[in-house]
Specification:
alpha+beta; Beta-Lactamase; five-stranded antiparallel β-sheet
């Protein structure tokens, strides 16, 4: 038999000497007591009331409560039935226990007897409180469970009425209900109220009050069944307090907070932040939970819809954009989770919608700043070609690649001729123009696969990658040409000296490679200078 954790007021089930069953509206058994299982030989796999009586009898009970449940006064559904597994006739008595989240019923099955003494004996044995009172509320009979609940004995109760034991404001509220039964307006009602224990503390109870007629005196009496719901009320108060706290927090956060049923189309709660972020009234979501999709960028709308309304999504964290008529764009982070009960059944979904536009803008700013910083590090600010740090990294990588696969590369070291004299004679502004002219000359005369960089001052390097020996003379010849620079004072001729070293097994490090190219350049520079001096003499 399928079992659930019993609410506190239903703990009498297992001890009750009469068959009792807790059911939902479909007739599915939530819990049955031991007496019920033993008397009717209930099998472990049986989960429906059809195992006890016909479906038509149960449907009749459900229809009855559909009619009377909106009324404040109604009596239990009572019907004589012959059970499927017994030849005897039983009294089926059904009451509506709860309506949240769905209707829950309690059904009691008692052997049909007209012997009132037997009924009194059963009441004595029940662990739930049972009392009989007259129209004035004076006690006629009280079972032990009622005395235990309130701490009074027989002698105490003889001096009191049932209303004397009821908290005064609750008694005042209940008296009109009792008077209506006395006047014949219905014969049963249910009310939650507080009793006063003999020690003075309050106890929450749920009472089912039915009008009966004494067969001996033919006078009206009231039979009252009392369930202890004190723990349930305390839990309800705790839940209500938690809900108030949750709403107080949720209404003061900067994100949209929403809760839905397991069915995402049944929204329970959305906070007012939706008005601010979506710039629409939150009430539109309760009538149409899809309404938030209209603002989402068309390219991202389908993903947002599938994520939110998919039955297979347990948790999610996606970003999308909102578009507004004035051209504004907001970036949203949509996060949420599904919440399951102890049996793994989905009970509700909860999520947040956060405006992360400032975060995205800040990220974009950081990206731009990082790019600019990288350019400052990798490129020489004056000439625009690679900086010393960047070109040295390229040289190191070329050396390591040669060490792995013997890929041929050539390093060319370059120095401007007579640069110090230009700086001293014409100033640094002219000197800077010369350096920029040299950088432009180098980049114009190398291949796309090659790279030029400034080592410092008037010293440059060119890395010729993947270069065959036959190509080297042609490239060096282009690089050695005099440099034309518009805008420089007359008499300034810009020329350069260079030295080239091809990678080989004799080169044992990138630093040695650079040093050898530097030495070669200075050898060529001295040789050219010596030749010029020889021609003058």
């Amino acid at each position: 038999m399928f079992q659930t954790h019993s609410p506190p007021q239903m703990q009498f089930f297992e001890l009750a000497p009469v068959p009792m069953v807790l059911l939902n509206e479909l007739g599915e058994i939530i819990q049955s007591n031991r007496e019920c299982q033993q008397l009717f030989h209930v099998q472990p796999d049986e989960t429906n009331i059809d195992g006890y009586l016909t479906a038509s009898a149960w449907n009749e009970a459900v229809r009855y409560f559909q009619v009377v449940s909106n009324s404040s006064q109604y009596e239990p559904f009572t019907k004589l039935v012959r059970l499927a597994r017994s030849k005897d006739i039983y009294v089926l008595k059904v009451n509506l226990v709860n309506t949240v989240p769905t209707n829950t019923f309690i059904a009691a099955l008692t052997l049909y007897q007209q012997d009132d003494e037997l009924n009194e004996a059963l009441q004595e044995r029940l662990p739930m409180g049972m009392v009989r009172v007259d129209t004035e509320g004076r006690f006629i009979s009280v079972n032990p469970a009622y005395q235990t609940l309130l701490g009074y004995n027989d002698d105490d109760l003889l001096q009191l009425t049932e209303f004397d034991l009821t908290y005064h404001s609750d008694a005042n509220s209940e008296k009109p209900l009792r008077e209506n039964i006395t006047l014949g307006s219905g014969n049963q009602y249910r009310v939650d109220k507080r009793y006063i224990h003999k020690n003075g503390h309050q106890i929450w109870v749920r009472t089912f009050v039915s009008s009966i007629v004494c067969k001996y005196t033919n006078q009206q009496q009231f039979l009252i069944a009392v369930l202890d719901i004190h723990e349930e009320k305390q839990l309800q108060d705790t839940i209500a307090t938690s809900e108030r706290r949750f709403r107080a927090i949720a209404e003061n956060v900067s994100s949209v907070v929403w809760i839905s049923a397991a069915d995402p189309l049944r929204l329970f709660y959305v906070n007012k932040c939706y008005d601010t972020i979506w710039e629409e009234k939150v009430e539109t979501l309760y009538s149409d939970p899809h309404a938030f999709l209209a603002r989402i960028h068309p390219a991202e709308r389908e993903v947002a819809e599938n994520t939110r309304f998919s039955s297979s999504t347990n948790s999610w964290n996606i970003n999308y954009r909102l578009l507004f008529e004035d051209g504004r764009v907001k970036h949203i982070r949509d996060s949420g989770n599904c919440v399951f009960d102890g049996n793994g059944e989905l009970i509700y979904r909860v999520g947040t919608l956060t405006d992360i536009t400032a975060e995205i803008d800040q990220r974009d700013t950081v990206v731009v700043m990082a790019k600019k910083l990288r350019e400052l590090v990798e490129y020489d600010s004056l000439t625009g070609i690679k900086s010393r740090h960047a070109i040295m990294t390229d040289i190191q990588e070329a050396y390591q690649e040669y060490d792995r696969i013997s890929d041929p590369s050539v390093l060319v070291y370059i120095d401007a001729d007579g640069f110090k004299n230009i700086n001293d004679s014409y100033g640094h502004d002219v000197g800077d123009e010369v350096l920029k002219a040299i950088a432009g000359h180098l980049t114009s005369n190398i291949r796309d696969s090659d790279v030029a960089g400034r080592i410092g001052g008037d010293e440059f390097v060119v890395l010729l990658r993947h270069t065959a020996k036959a190509e080297i003379p042609h490239i060096l010849e282009r690089l050695k040409c005099d440099i034309e620079c518009e805008g420089l004072p007359e008499g300034i001729n810009v020329s350069i000296s260079l030295g080239a070293i091809e990678l080989s097994e004799n080169v044992v490090s990138a630093e040695q490679w650079l040093s050898e190219a530097d030495k070669t350049m200075y050898q060529h520079k001295r040789a050219r200078k010596k030749n010029r001096l020889s021609r003058k003499h």
